[in-house]
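Review form for a predicted model. The reviewer records the input and the model, then writes brief findings.
Reviewer: anonymous (R2)
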Amino acid sequence: MSLNSFFQFIEIKTKLASMIPFIVGTLYSQYRYKSFNLKNFIIMSISLLAFDMATTGINNYIDYKKALRSHENKNNIHGDIKESTALAIIFILLSLAISFGILLTLNTNVMVLLIGIVSFLAGILYTYGPIPISRTPLGEIFSGIFMGFIILFLSVYIHIFDENIVSFMYANNRLTFSINLMEVFYIFLISIPTMCGIANIMLANNICDVEEDIVNNRFTLPHYLGVKNALKLFKVLYYIGYLDIIILVILKISPIISLLVLLTIIPLNKNIKLFNQKHIKSETFVYSVKNFAVINITHILSVSVALIFSL
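Model under review:
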């Protein structure tokens, strides 16, 4: 197995979608809560990356098995990766994700375990099962919430777990759950640009595949909305992210320098126009990834600058 084949199998280029919310959450834990735990940061980064690669591997493995059932000539999954090798990779990655997830729980509290289990199940069901979530109208919602919000929330929580913004405990025959609604709402606001960007990556993918998906009995959101309305939603979701940045600054959750993100609307509108003109996966799908990257990397850099000047 070559390194290039491995990177193709786990689609290394797509890992940006999970790592950006992780970085945004980490920066906000320092900016808003003045807290950073290096050990938890390293543990979660390994668990998150391993799980993201595993779910991608599972998705590619399922596509490979379906190709075999349809009598397509496909000896290997990607390059020189055979079926047995693919299964071994998936098993190793899942084992890493689970092991480091348990270690993270031991370093924090049971809330991390509970959220991790729910995320784990959602990640598997997203790509596997009788009806994978990614092949339904709910794909954009699930990908946006779990990758855009849950990852970001956990990346904040692992640094401030002892502040009990969310707690779940059992003592003296009492099961107690408490939540600081305002702080969780603030973290939700912080996650809106990542949620919208990730949902749009999924939406762009489904817009490009809408005709092929219908042939294969996959009825995604663009099928129900129609391509024209799906393209309108594609644009609106980005603008919701920009509006959220303004709200974050007004509420003093985000530094005023975050308003620099608004400047990215210029290349973003250009990319939206190009995608609207021609939505072909091999040519224009990449614009959704570029938009996600330019908005959120600018957001990351602006918060980083604010942190540096606050030292």
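Findings: Residues 181-215 form the longest helix (35 residues).
Further findings: The chain is about 75% helix and 5% strand.
Recommendation: see findings above.
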